[in-house]
Every structure is written in C-alpha cells, then in structure tokens.
Design goal:
mainly beta, Immunoglobulin-like, 2 domains, five-stranded mixed β-sheet, 35% strand, disordered N terminus, signal, PKD domain containing protein
C-alpha cells in the first residue's frame, strides 16, 4: 500500500515538473515577442514660444492628480494644463509637481520666450462691432452719412480708434457698445494690464474729490482660446469693478429703445435748458419706462439711422446712477468717479483708467484665471439723464497694452 502511494507521489512530481518546464518555455517564447514601451514623457525637455503668444502645455499625467506649476519657486498655476505667456524675451525654468495617492513626482523643463518676427502694436488693431444707444452724439461721432450701413459705421469707428492717433466715439445711453481687437494677446501679469481711454475729467468746482464728468462704461474681456480670430460668446468675462458685488448693481439688465417720430417739430430756442424731455421712449426688462431727452445743441436724430427696425434692445450690467445736481438749480451737474474697473471713469493720465485682467469674473461672479486677452467690449453701464447735460454716455478714445513698450 505504501509503495503504491509513494509511486503516485513520484508521478505527480514528474508531471508537475513537466508542466512547469512547459510553462517556462511558453513564457520565454512570449518574452521574445513582447514590445518594451518607452517611458511616458510628461514634459518636453524645453518649449519655445514667441513673446505675447500663449503656450499650452498639457502634461501626460493621471487624471485627478494634484498639480502645481512654478517658475523660480513662484507658483504660477495649479491647473492640469498650463497656459503660459510672457512679454519678455528670456528663459524660464519650469517645474511641475504632481501628487497622486500621496506620491509626489517632480518634473522640470525650460520655456524659451523668443522675439517675434513681426512688429506688434500696443494699441487697438481692429473694431469688430459698434452699436450705440440713444444719445446726443449718436450719428455725429462717428459721423453718419446718408445711406451708410452698419458696416460703414463700424468702419468709421475703426478709423477713429485704431492706432495711436485716435479720436472719440460715443456709445450713447445704457448698453451702447463697441468691440475692440488687438494684434496680440495682452498678457495677464502682476498688476494692471491695459488702459482704456475716454474723456473723463475732474471738475474744478466739484465739492467732492475725484468728481466731475465720469460716465462709467462696463468692460468685458475675451481670450481667444480656440484661436479662431473672433470673440465667441463663451469667451467673454466681465471686469468686476468696484460696484460689481454691490446690491445697487443690476445684472442681466436690458433696455429697449423705440424709434422717435422723424416728423416731430424741432426744439425752439438755443438755450441749454430748452429740451424735448420726451424724445425717445425706452422700456427696461423690469417694467420701467422713460424717455431720453433731446437738447438744442444737437439737432440730428439720436436714434441710429442705420437701424431700420422700429426698436432695438441692448443688454448688460447696470450700475447705480452717479450724476447729481450740485448747484441745486440745475446749472452744475457732477458725475462721481467709481473706485476702479470702468472705462471713461477717470482721466486718461490717472491710474484708475488702468485695468487688471485678474478682475475678470464669470457669469456666476467667480474670478477666472485668464492667460491674457485678445478682445475688449465696452458698453455704457448707467441709465440716467443728467439734466441739461442729457444722457450719461460712455465715450471711448482708444485702448492700449501696458506691457508692450
């Protein structure tokens, strides 16, 4: 009996050994057929990009990793992908730290920023759109000529605003807007990044400091993320100025303007107090109605003559009225400047006319981190009549990049 059991054990050992040898042989054959994959490249050894161009680096890392990008030990981003831009011709040592399940790995690279082959202008390079609201300077600056189309008027605004030698255009009352483009991306650096020019000034007789004629315009910015050369609807972000988070500010406000009767009699007299106070009717989305007045100084139509429709609607954020009658007799109206973040809100030589891209906020009021901007939209943010001065209307006289010297 024991002899049979021992024989059976010996047989199992022999068979097991044969199986093991076959397995090893098969494994050897598979190894000969295996392709050894090269290690995954997380970052390139170096990257090269022109000044004022955005470099996008999307590292090959595990999803949901905690990411930190830094240059010279200064953290520049914690997003999975890096958008990098610089106005300086230099080399930047780049470090990427990736943490996943408690394990931290560090990768390094160099970003070489080179001088562009062409020449950039720091000033506005294009006007993409222009539609003023009702105003005493509408159809005057820029000048409407009989038969002009919307394209003609946009071209006239472009002639006024492009380059360093500019003139003024008026956006009229609430919602009147202009859309501006640059020939490069204005980088989002530390501090303020671009300046918007207007015709605001401090009044010599104003009882309050930093008051005079300030007709604040909302500023909206866009980064051309998909590089199609135009600002798409989902690329716009409002600059959150000093009034943005206040309960006196109305978001998603709109005003519809109705075309006036062209046969209505002209205003008699030539004194500033002689006005047609019920010239153009308007109605907002809150159910409020009112009129834009017409004065004796400007006899042309205040309704854009290239718009054939009997009414048109303009939308945006409305901030509180800022003009008041300081004299008490209607003779001297003063517009108070807001603290920061608006166009035509401070003199052109004042720091308050400079704008920081880091103030950009999304539709939910959250600040966004843009690498830079390619487009600016400016529209009148106040719906107010300031006595004999007429409607509060933002004027624009240009804009430029503060980083391009």
């Amino acid at each position: 009996m024991n002899t049979k059991i021992n024989s059976f054990k010996i047989l199992k050992i022999i068979l097991g050994s044969v199986f093991l040898l076959q397995f090893i042989a098969c494994g050897t054959d598979n190894e000969e057929d295996m392709v050894i994959e090269p290690p995954v490249e997380v970052l390139k050894e170096s990257y090269t990009i022109d000044r004022f161009k955005v470099l996008n680096i999307a590292p090959n890392i595990t999803a949901n990793s905690q990411v930190t990008w830094s240059v010279n030990d200064s953290v520049i981003s914690q997003s999975a992908a890096l958008d990098f831009i610089s106005p300086y011709q230099k080399n930047y040592p780049l470090t990427l730290k990736v943490e996943n399940n408690g394990v931290v790995k560090t990768y390094t690279s160099i970003i070489n920023v080179t001088k562009e082959t062409g020449t950039y202008s720091k000033y506005i390079a294009n006007v993409l759109d222009f539609r003023p609201a009702i105003g005493q300077f509408t159809n005057e600056i820029p000048q409407y000529v009989s038969g002009n189309t919307e394209a003609n008027i946009i071209s006239a605004a472009k002639k006024a605003l492009v380059g360093s030698n500019t003139s003024i255009i008026s956006l009229g009352g609430f919602g009147g807007y202009v859309v501006l483009g640059f020939d490069h991306t204005i980088p989002n650096m530390n501090g303020r990044d671009f300046k918007v020019l207007g015709n605001a000034f401090w009044g010599s007789e104003a009882s309050e400091a930093r008051s005079g004629s300030c007709e604040a315009g909302i500023i909206v910015v866009a980064y051309d993320k998909n590089k199609n050369g135009k600002p798409d609807d989902d690329e716009w972000y409002e600059i959150a100025g000093s009034e943005y988070f206040k309960n006196t500010t109305l978001k998603n406000y709109s005003v519809t303007y109705f075309k006036p009767d062209p046969n209505k009699a002209a205003i008699a007299g030539e004194e500033f107090w002689q006005m047609d106070k019920e010239y153009v009717k308007w109605q907002d989305n809150l159910g409020t109605t009112g009129y834009k007045s017409k004065n004796a100084f400007h006899e042309q139509s205040y309704y854009p003559l290239w718009i054939a429709e009997a009414s048109y609607t303009l939308k945006g954020t409305r901030i509180q009225d800022n003009f008041y009658d300081q004299s008490g007799t209607g003779n001297y109206w003063v517009g108070k400047s807001f603290d920061f973040g608006y166009a035509d809100n401070a003199p052109n030589n004042d720091e308050a006319s400079n704008i920081d891209i880091s103030w950009a906020a999304d539709k939910n009021g959250n600040y966004v981190k843009l690498p830079g901007i390619d487009f600016i939209k400016i529209y009148t943010g106040i719906n107010q009549e300031a006595g004999w001065l007429g409607e509060v209307s933002t004027e624009v006289a240009g804009a430029y990049d503060l980083h391009l010297k």
